[in-house]
Design brief:
Elements: H1 6-16, E1 32-40, E2 50-55, E3 64-67, E4 71-78, E5 86-89, E6 113-119, E7 124-130, H2 134-137, E8 143-149, E9 158-167, E10 169-170, E11 175-176, H3 183-187, E12 195-198, E13 205-209, E14 213-220, E15 227-232, E16 234-241, E17 244-251, E18 256-258, E19 263-270, E20 277-283, E21 288-297, E22 325-333, E23 341-344, E24 347-350, H4 351-356, E25 361-363, E26 366-367, E27 376-378, E28 382-390, E29 396-400, E30 405-408, E31 414-418, E32 420-423, E33 428-435, E34 439-445, H5 448-452, E35 456-461
Bound molecules: CU-O-CU linkage (C2O) and copper (II) ion.
Residues 87, 89, 129, 131, 261, 399, 401, 442, 444, 446 line the site of CU-O-CU linkage.
């Protein structure tokens, strides 16, 4: 018998009875976010439903939408069988609210609750997801969109939030394949799914009108797949990456690569004709198919609009490369990699022992994880340049919590601000940032099987 304290009991019993536990008449209880198992029709209807782990009974969970500078308050209620916590990906957040089990909080146990309460300094497209056993919990559906709106509305007709995922499903049972932590996934490209969805639907279709202007907020919630997207019948501009506005809109021309956890905001004009269908295409290895279909219905206009203007910038401290301390991160390991040994728990061990302990990757020759020594301890306000070398045979999507960084171009020009950057195999990437948010911040690969098997470290600020 699990003993629940009174607050946990109230939260769970009310939710089980189907009563909304939201900020109500009393004005004291914050809105909830209930982590629960739910049977969802993910596959076509000739298959049975799939049991998912969801927020509020669906995946993606409820969209959380707030004005820039506003406050998000959610009581996480854990109604399933594992401990969990919720991370607010891409938000420059108060460290105590970052939602990392084992670092910024303890995992919320089954029957337990945790109150998240934070403000959102930057407008943009973000998401929230489980951050305990993420390689399983995110794969089972525990995530949702977090949208922070600009003060002034854009000159668009409408907006669509599009959360992309790939699921690994056993077609015989219609259930999520239960082989989380399979050594092949850990040591190769990660867990790649066999069912692609948008907003939890494999064949999402939307109606649009000719010359309508849409803002599309794309979020990649997949464990390991980088989506390779294209536009057909839509004329588009990228206006933000990972929530951060680009200084000038960039016309979409060819494939958009969206790595795990990355977001892109597009402004698109419908140029397909009435009766036709525009698409967001996904280019696979062998085939190209429609990720989202936009059916063009009557009622459009004959006039195109002007090229869109840039989104208003978020307020950021400019990084000073000349003042920057240089840090290095060498990423090694994986199948076909060169790692022969690594330090685990402070002791140098041969690769056989590293693998037996469940690790396949190292950062700077170390497998430290959440509890290990940080990559760096930084003064608050320090300028940092981090040189990352992907000395492995696989791509990695590196994510820093709590602080946005610039990608640095070869000529030292500051590239776009991001929170997740993709390094192709063998690639090197420098990023730079001002360490202006105090706390312990994870730096990890967002191919979640990689993060679980060694590709995780942290930086400590202040
Ligand atoms: Cu999107 Cu450490 O996470
Ligand atoms: Cu990786």
């Amino acid at each position: 018998m699990i003993s629940l304290n009174r607050r946990q009991f109230l939260a769970t019993s009310a939710a089980f009875a189907g009563l909304p536990v939201s900020a109500g008449a009393a004005g004291t209880a914050p809105a909830t976010l209930i982590a629960q198992q739910s049977d969802v029709q993910l596959l076509p209807t000739n298959y049975s439903k799939t049991s998912l782990w969801c927020f509020d009974g669906r995946s993606p969970g409820p969209e959380i939408r707030v004005a820039q500078g506003g406050r998000v308050q959610r009581r996480l209620v854990n109604q399933f069988s594992q401990g969990t916590s919720t991370h607010w990906h891409g938000i420059r957040i108060d460290n105590a609210m970052d939602g990392v089990s084992g670092l910024t909080q303890d995992a919320v146990q089954p029957g337990g609750t945790f109150d998240y309460d934070f403000t959102v300094p930057d407008a943009g497209t973000y998401w929230y997801h489980a951050h305990n056993r993420s390689f399983e919990q995110v794969a089972r559906g525990l995530y949702g969109a977090l949208i922070v709106e600009e003060a002034d509305p854009l000159d668009i007709d409408r907006e669509e939030v599009l959360v992309l995922d790939d699921w690994l499903i056993d077609p015989a049972t219609a259930q999520i394949k239960d082989d989380f932590g399979a050594p092949h996934d850990l040591s190769h490209a990660g867990r790649i799914g066999n069912l692609l969805t948008t907003n939890g639907t494999f064949n999402l279709g939307l109606s649009v009108r000719k010359n309508e202007r849409l803002r599309l907020r794309l979020i990649n919630a997949a464990n390991a797949r980088s989506f390779q997207l294209g536009l057909e019948g839509l004329d588009g501009w990228a206006v933000a990456l990972d929530g951060m506005p680009l200084t000038t809109p960039v016309r979409v021309n060819g494939a958009i690569i969206l790595a795990p956890a990355q977001r892109i905001d597009l402004i698109v004009d419908v140029v397909a004709d009435v009766g036709g269908t525009a698409h967001i295409l996904q280019f696979g290895r062998e085939d190209t198919f429609s990720q989202v279909a936009f059916e063009v219905v009557e009622g459009g206009t004959t006039n195109r609009r002007n090229v869109p203007s840039a989104l208003p910038p978020n307020d950021h401290r400019m990084v000073d490369l000349k003042e920057a301390t240089t840090l290095s991160l060498s990423m090694e390991g994986g199948a076909m990699g060169r790692m022969r040994s690594a330090s685990l728990g402070g002791e140098l061990k041969p690769i056989g022992e590293i693998v037996d302990a469940g690790f396949f990757w190292s950062f700077n020759g170390r497998v430290d994880g959440i509890e290990g020594d940080p990559l760096a301890r930084l003064e608050r306000g320090q300028n940092v340049r981090l040189k990352m070398v992907n000395d492995t045979a696989f791509p990695h999507a590196m994510h820093l919590h709590g602080i946005h960084f610039h990608e640095i171009a070869e000529d030292d020009a500051l590239g776009p601000l991001r929170d997740t950057t993709l390094l192709e195999r063998g690639q090197t990437r420098d990023i730079a940032f001002v360490a202006d948010n105090p706390g312990q911040w994870l730096l990890h690969c967002h191919m979640l099987s990689h993060a679980a098997s060694g590709m995780m470290t942290k930086i400590v600020v202040g």
